[in-house]
Amino acid sequence: MLERSIVVRCSLAAAFEAFTTHIDEWWPRSHRRWSDSVLVLEGRAGGRLYERSAGGEEASLGAVTHWEPPARLGYDWYPGSGVDVPTHVDVRFFVDGDRTRVEVTHSLGKVARELWTERVARFEQGWGAVLPAFAGHVETMERGNSG
């Protein structure tokens, strides 16, 4: 299991909305299949997480398992490279004074332990880029709201 957290300067509801509804605005281009793609997270349990290229090609990245605004998002995440069994990502949002703490737990899900061991370093590197990108987006969003 991999656990990461970050604190952002915004309300719980704003953090949840930024993470989910605005995922395409902050998810790093370097962590996508196509540099010109759109990332979509359908806001409901059973919804899809997918990437669509400018040419219309789609890649399924996951399936939403928990949709509990503004406190929790869970999804099965397909690690890519021909792997058709998902890991699981659980994202929880907590009030932390006038900020929000976002906690991510990325775990085996249905993936075999051997595959997890092989890929956990890649997941650690990925979250090391994704969470700071999210925090940067929130900071920009909040500066825009206060001006």
Task: Give the key terms.
147 residues; alpha+beta; 3 helices; globular
Q: What do you see in this structure?
A:
The protein has 147 residues and is of the alpha+beta class. It contains 3 helices and 7 strands, in the order E-H-H-E-E-E-E-E-E-H. The chain has helices spanning 12-20, 23-26, 113-146; strands at 2-8, 38-41, 48-52, 58-68, 72-77, 87-96, 99-107. A hairpin with a 2-residue loop joins strand 6 and strand 7 (99-107). It is globular.
Judged by helices, strands and strand pairing, the structural class is alpha+beta
**Helical fraction:** 25-40%
**Radius of gyration, Cα only, in angstroms?**
15 Å
Look at the structure and give the mean pLDDT. Answer: 90
Order of helices and strands: EHHEEEEEEH
As residue ranges, the low-confidence spans are none
Count of helical stretches = 3
Overall 3D form: globular
What's the total number of strands?
Answer: 7
What is the rounded distance between the termini?
A: 40 Å
For the largest beta-sheet, the strand count, sense and barrel status come to: 7 strands, antiparallel
Query: Could you give the order of strands across the largest sheet?
Result: 1-7-6-5-4-3-2
